[in-house]
């Protein structure tokens, strides 16, 4: 389903509306800066904690934080640019999110073969910190979720991370209760699916927004 901005671009592309620049939303820009700083900080925290605890779900979540920090930076760079540039940025973010999902899937498979029992206490503490950070970002971005593919990609990534952090906490409880690493592996697999499915949504909408521009150029 196309957004209102996409339909507008398709309906008046002959008049060059796809190249027009929208006014910069200063509130949205401020929210993106806050989310960028929070995600970059949590990437470092989870990367170190995940390696120390031997948790693949924490390491996978750290990669999500890194990907989101990069996505927020890209969104800031294209904020106020024409729709086609924002759609191209969204396409890049969709591809990167898909790559993260595939990396997590590979790491999950590796840990399933060479399974170690992660430290549930570290998983729980860091997972709670990450959940608080992502829920805060998701709440801020919820009010900016509608619009072009670039703006929607930011919301999808934030929403997926909040869901993933709840799953990490569930994995910590599972590891603590069972004394095995399987809950950690199962959650990492779910996170991989979330990343790939989110990437597919972003790529699909960004290509839909780029299509009118390509038809105009023919």
From TrEMBL:
The keyword Mitochondrion does not apply. Residues 32-210 form the Cation efflux protein transmembrane domain. InterPro entries: Cation_efflux_TM, Cation_efflux_TMD_sf, CDF/SLC30A. Keywords: Ion transport, Membrane, Transmembrane, Transmembrane helix, Transport, Zinc, Zinc transport. Its main location: membrane. GO terms for cellular component: plasma membrane. It is found in: Membrane. The chain crosses the membrane at residues 31-53, 65-83, 90-110, 122-142, 162-179, 185-203. It is a multi-pass membrane protein. It comes from the Bacteria. GO terms for molecular function: zinc ion transmembrane transporter activity. This is Cobalt transporter. It comes from Skermanella aerolata.
